[in-house]
Task: inverse folding
């Protein structure tokens, strides 16, 4: 437990205790938000206030010390003067940078005019046994930042702001759907059958029932049961789990928005998506609809572009017929894609992903996907080979998936059965009979939508990796005392001049 703890800090901890001071008191004077003090600071000069937060680097000038204290709303310089702190002064070096403190004092400025709280009382709230890393800001080994997110957050204000923006995005997504009369609901995370997407699940076991369960890969089938039940407009924002690879766009545990609306189709859902983006840009970005993502500007103002899936496929793969396995197989081999053991429809979609998706700068709705890769979508009346389904792409990245929901129980059962016949690790092992039964009671025409919240946050915050918008992304576990673990930092040198 003590590996990496600074020995001098441990010694100071022991000194505090030997002197009868609690280094981790149960309560201290609570501060007011620093951010509330700064806008009209000049009018507050002379007021006595209390602030609480993390102490920055302490600069010692004999009878005078300076540091900054930071809370969730901002930072303010603290001035420590011997004459104002007669009781604190002898033990002042026991309180140092990275400690959590509560400070009461008078608001004023330094000779250089910097806003400062001149401390009259210093209460140690928690002794930090590790100093803040000196060069954490701009650290090139980003994995260290992800592994020690708690350091990343207090060391980098822009990281805290990014996650504050994420919180705002989720809040505004809720506000948008609430304004349209949708009900927010919760559906099971532990499911006896997994479905609603093509993905390999995580499995677990319930001991009392002696039953295998799956962490959901999507809430879709439960939400559509609610449409059958007459709730008509529902949405859920929750975690889903897919036992797959990790990349800048993929984390095995991620947040999904799914919404379902009775009496709507996929065209109506397109309008909902455009409305959602307009709302988010207005409330979160407050601009003209433009965002910068991966060094390129994108205009998220509706209307979005639209293109048919098969038209795009032919454009990038001339002479290849999506529905002809032989021609798809030849093209896949030209692209050096894996072909052994890959089902025909999936292989054709792999070719689409390899040749088309990166070119979709958008925002663009790609629509009318083949039935073979859309087992839950309604067929297009004029072409039963394809479905009323679309995906939204921006910067070559899929952000959402939607369709007119299949509500024919006979067709649905047949598609489920065909899935099971061609079963792989991403296919349920049996037909979801209960869901088919629900459809047999009658589900109205409906439009459904799924949007990855993490990718949406990437786009709106300009983050290039999903790990930058997930507080604690999944990483390979390191053994104890691994040399690649985040190092304990030495105390940074103090400046030589006072503020």
Result:
């Amino acid at each position: 437990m003590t590996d990496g703890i600074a020995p001098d800090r441990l010694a100071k901890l022991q000194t505090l205790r030997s002197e009868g001071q609690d280094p981790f008191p149960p309560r201290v004077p609570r501060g007011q938000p620093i951010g509330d003090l700064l806008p009209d600071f000049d009018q507050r000069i002379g007021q006595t206030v209390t602030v609480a937060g993390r102490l920055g680097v302490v600069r010692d000038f004999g009878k005078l010390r300076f540091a900054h204290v930071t809370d969730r709303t901002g930072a303010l310089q603290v001035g420590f003067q011997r004459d104002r702190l007669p009781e604190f002064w002898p033990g002042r070096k026991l309180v140092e940078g990275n400690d959590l403190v509560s400070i009461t004092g008078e608001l004023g400025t330094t000779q250089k005019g910097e806003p400062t709280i001149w401390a009259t009382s210093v209460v140690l709230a928690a002794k930090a046994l590790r100093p803040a890393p000196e060069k954490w800001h701009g650290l090139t080994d980003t994995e260290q930042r992800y592994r020690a997110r708690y350091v990343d957050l207090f060391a980098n204000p822009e990281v805290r702001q990014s996650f504050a923006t994420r919180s705002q995005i989720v809040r505004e997504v809720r506000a948008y759907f609430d304004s349209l009369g949708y009900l927010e609901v919760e559906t099971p995370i532990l499911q006896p059958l997994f479905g609603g997407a093509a993905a390999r699940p995580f499995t677990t076991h319930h001991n009392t029932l002696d039953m295998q369960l799956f962490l959901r890969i999507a809430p879709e089938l439960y939400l559509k049961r609610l449409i059958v039940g007459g709730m008509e407009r529902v949405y859920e924002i929750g975690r889903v789990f897919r036992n797959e690879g990790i990349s800048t766009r993929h984390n095995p545990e991620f947040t999904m928005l799914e919404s379902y609306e009775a009496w709507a189709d996929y065209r109506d859902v397109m309008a909902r998506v455009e409305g959602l983006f307009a709302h988010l840009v207005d409330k979160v970005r407050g601009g003209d609809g433009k965002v910068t993502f991966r060094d390129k500007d994108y205009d998220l103002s509706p209307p979005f572009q639209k293109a048919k899936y098969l038209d795009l496929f032919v454009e990038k793969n001339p002479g290849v017929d999506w529905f002809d396995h032989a021609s798809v197989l030849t093209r896949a081999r030209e692209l050096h894609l894996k072909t052994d053991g890959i089902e025909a429809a999936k292989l054709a979609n792999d070719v689409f992903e390899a040749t088309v998706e990166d070119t979709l700068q958008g925002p663009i709705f790609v629509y009318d996907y083949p039935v073979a890769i859309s087992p839950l979508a309604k067929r297009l009346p004029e072409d039963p080979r394809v479905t009323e389904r679309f995906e939204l792409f921006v910067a070559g990245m899929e952000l959402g998936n939607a369709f007119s929901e299949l509500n024919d129980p006979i067709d649905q059962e047949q598609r489920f059965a065909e899935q099971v016949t061609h079963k792989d690790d991403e296919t349920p092992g049996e037909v979801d009979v209960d869901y088919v039964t629900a459809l047999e009671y009658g589900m109205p025409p409906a439009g459904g939508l799924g949007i990855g919240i993490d990718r949406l946050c990437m786009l709106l915050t300009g983050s290039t990796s999903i790990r930058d918008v997930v507080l604690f992304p999944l990483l390979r576990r390191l053994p104890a005392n691994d040399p690649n673990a985040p190092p304990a930092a030495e105390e940074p040198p103090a400046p030589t001049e006072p503020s």
User: Anything to note?
Assistant: The longest helix spans residues 157-179.
